[in-house]
Design a protein that fits this description.
The complex is a heterodimer of chains A (107) and B (117).
Chain A: E1 4-7, E2 10-13, E3 19-25, E4 33-38, E5 45-49, E6 53-54, E7 62-67, E8 70-75, E9 85-90, E10 97-98, E11 102-106
Parallel strand pairs in A: 2-11
Antiparallel strand pairs in A: 1-3, 3-8, 4-5, 4-9, 5-6, 7-8, 9-10, 9-11
Chain B: E1 3-7, E2 10-12, E3 18-25, E4 33-39, E5 45-51, E6 58-60, E7 68-73, E8 78-83, E9 92-100, E10 103-107, E11 111-115
Parallel strand pairs in B: 2-11
Antiparallel strand pairs in B: 1-3, 3-8, 4-5, 4-9, 5-6, 7-8, 9-10, 9-11
Classes of the chains: A mainly beta (107), B mainly beta (117).
Amino acid sequence: EIVLTQSPATLSVSPGERATLSCRAGQSVSSNLAWYQQKPGQAPRLLIYAASTRATGIPARFSGSGSGTEFTLTISSLQSEDFAVYYCQQYNNWPRTFGQGTKVEIK
Amino acid sequence: EVQLVESGGGLVQPGGSLRLSCAASGFTFSSYEMNWVRQAPGKGLEWVSYISSSGSTKNYADSVKGRFTISRDNAKNSLYLQMNSLRAEDTAFYYCASDHGGVIDYWGQGTLVTVSS
């Protein structure tokens, strides 16, 4: 099983600032990595797939990068609606695995 | 608009069984791979099971293998999860989710399964 380790566990950011989230895989997943956003009481929403491709309707302030074992999700200028938990997920190997999540909170 | 609506959750005793359903609409269900993903209250996401568009290929997390069975009825645009020998650690919200080449692109709102005596 491929373990995904997200850091930090919690990120405190002021609105308008940049947020950088990390996801590290225990072995290479090539570019087969996705990012999801989850707000309280809601289902997750797909943000990024193939490490760097934005899903339909996702604002340009969200960007993904990386390949192999190191990945980054960047939110260029945090809006109030972006405070949430973010998960990475690999789909290179079975079983599909998720990271433990990074909570982005208001500073 | 893609819609995935889960049902069938509830309270069940340890060792009991439950069958979850997911009604799909707004897309060609028979062309899509599907998954079940769960989330224990206040915890992270855990992939549970996958089924190919035809139903011929199924995969399970080790934590549920031998106890849970995924199935689908493409004529009814429906996905199912039969859960047997339930344990306290199976308590979670269960999400039905569509799959596009491994990317879980659309999610239902979830149904809560509580395993407790």
